[in-house]
Amino acid sequence: MLKLQEVSKVFRVGAFGGKTMTAVDEVSFEVARGEVVSLIGESGSGKSTIGKMVLRLMSAQAGTITFDGDDITKLDKRAYYRKVQGVFQDPFSSYNPIFKADRVFSMIKEVYFPKEDDRVWRDKVASALNDVRLDAGAVTNKFPHQLSGGQLQRLLIARALLLDIDFLVADEITSMLDASTRIDVLNLLADLKLRGLGVLFITHDLALGNYISERTVVLHQGRIVEYGPTEKVFETPEHAYTRKLLASVPQLHRKWEGV
Amino acid sequence: MTTTDPITAITAPDPGTAPISVRREALYFAVRNGKLLVGVTIVTIFLLIGIIGPFLVDRPPMEYVGLPMLPPSTEYWLGTTTFGQDVLAQFVYGVRSTFEVGLLAGGLSALIGMVIGFVAGYRGGLVDEVLNMITNVVLVIPTLAVLLIINAYLGIRSVGMQALFIGLTSWPWVARAIRAQTFSLRSRDFVDLARLSGVGTSRIILREIAPNMSSYLFMTFILLFGSSILIASSLDFIGLGPTDGVSLGLMLNHSNQWSALHLGLWWWFIPPGAAITAIVGALYVANVGLDEVFNPKLREL
Ligand SMILES: Nc1ncnc2c1ncn2[C@@H]1O[C@H](COP(=O)(O)OP(=O)(O)OP(=O)(O)O)[C@@H](O)[C@H]1O
Ligand SMILES: [Mg+2]
């Protein structure tokens, strides 16, 4: 469904844009319908940049991204966003601080469902909130700073669910959630996956990636170092970086022993 | 979900939410800010003089209405000029046109500066470079020289034309400041989220970015208003003012031309000079007060 072919992104850095920095380097992978692909890598490896290119918030310098066979840059934006949505990494910066948080829902209504009856819409919002285990009364009519990071994050997931999406870019969507809500959200994704949703699951938590994804892409300094079925990547990692990554996961049954 | 009906839960308003209280807080500090109160009071007094004055003074400002060079009296409150014109009449019409020029020129330059600043800051890239170049060109244009040329060929006839000229030349610093702020706001995730919601560029600028700097935009307008008045008065004084009409600057220009100072006609030049100083000064003081209201760090404890 979503296919990246040798996609690269180069940022200009330095005072006069004289230097360049390759954040994403010839990345190719594919996400099929009803599949979760996790994108794993350390901080700064280019994960969010890939997500933003898929969401057309940034353009790629080279390579093509196709959705159902069409080059995404050629598609109408509104139609594209109806099918492809994203949840960003930083929930606090995802809300305009001077407006109420549930404005993210009314924006969707204004653009995509201007004619829909208010009551019907409210039902829809309430059921989306229910899906992400949020109590409508606790989160509506509040300003972003009055809500917790986890609540904000789940509001963003609910927002994406309001559109009948086929694909979700989930950029560390569970980073602010406690263990039990995290499982709820992951199970929600698993549910949606069964209904045919494709997910690009960006994370640096290997356990989460392992839990939810069919296939795994390991990114290191903008390059793919490992790409394959999740079990294979986790059991027989080919690249030294992946092995290092796996070795550095704290184990539940082992305690830290000071050096 | 508990027993609460989700629909009523959503519609139930929640009192005491933040920006309302933020706004209330701003108002609270606004009515207690001495600088702001003094500034606003002075400006309002002059504004009223400009609006109501011309209706109360029934003498035409530019005509011979009495003996020349009369000092202030109960008949002529501010005396008369060398030509027997009523200084009070000139003064109230002058205050009115001063506000007109400030509003028109300040509004125009705020508008141009905002449009260019927002577009350049939001779009970035080539658009930004082109707009930045235009801004820099206008910034380095020797305004006075251009005005002399325009005046020589066309003549500045009306207050409107003068305002147009001031408006067209004083926007660059506004554009620059707004561009910088827009640039930092546009990289915030909520702008991306609005784009993901299918919201168009102009709406994002107007409804996501601009509201985040509304206090700044308001203060910018106040400053432009004040500086336009000052520029207009200076132009009038050096003889580049509108050829027909009356303004505080023109009063100064005429009194200077006809040696009011040497003849001791203080009532001819002190009122307009004091009014310009008071209006512009009050605007700046109000602006400092506004800054304190909007910026909690500057509030005196
Ligand atoms: N707009 C930008 N301009 C310049 N450089 C950028 C920009 N956005 C990202 N970068 C750089 O690109 C690299 C990749 O950033 P990215 O946000 O994709 O990392 P990430 O893998 O998501 O990291 P994290 O796990 O911390 O979220 C970083 O080195 C970052 O500094
Ligand atoms: Mg990231």
UniProtKB/TrEMBL annotation, chain B:
<dbReference type="Pfam" id="PF00528">
    <property type="entry name" value="BPD_transp_1"/>
</dbReference>
<feature type="domain" description="ABC transmembrane type-1">
    <location>
        <begin position="95"/>
        <end position="289"/>
    </location>
</feature>
<keyword id="KW-1133">Transmembrane helix</keyword>
<feature type="transmembrane region" description="Helical">
    <location>
        <begin position="216"/>
        <end position="240"/>
    </location>
</feature>
<feature type="transmembrane region" description="Helical">
    <location>
        <begin position="134"/>
        <end position="154"/>
    </location>
</feature>
<keyword id="KW-1003">Cell membrane</keyword>
<dbReference type="InterPro" id="IPR000515">
    <property type="entry name" value="MetI-like"/>
</dbReference>
<protein>
    <submittedName>
        <fullName>Peptide ABC transporter permease</fullName>
    </submittedName>
</protein>
<dbReference type="InterPro" id="IPR035906">
    <property type="entry name" value="MetI-like_sf"/>
</dbReference>
<dbReference type="InterPro" id="IPR050366">
    <property type="entry name" value="BP-dependent_transpt_permease"/>
</dbReference>
<feature type="transmembrane region" description="Helical">
    <location>
        <begin position="36"/>
        <end position="56"/>
    </location>
</feature>
<dbReference type="GO" id="GO:0005886">
    <property type="term" value="C:plasma membrane"/>
</dbReference>
<feature type="transmembrane region" description="Helical">
    <location>
        <begin position="265"/>
        <end position="290"/>
    </location>
</feature>
<feature type="transmembrane region" description="Helical">
    <location>
        <begin position="102"/>
        <end position="122"/>
    </location>
</feature>
<keyword id="KW-0472">Membrane</keyword>
<comment type="similarity">
    <text>Belongs to the binding-protein-dependent transport system permease family.</text>
</comment>
<keyword id="KW-0813">Transport</keyword>
<keyword id="KW-0812">Transmembrane</keyword>
<feature type="transmembrane region" description="Helical">
    <location>
        <begin position="76"/>
        <end position="95"/>
    </location>
</feature>
<dbReference type="GO" id="GO:0071916">
    <property type="term" value="F:dipeptide transmembrane transporter activity"/>
</dbReference>
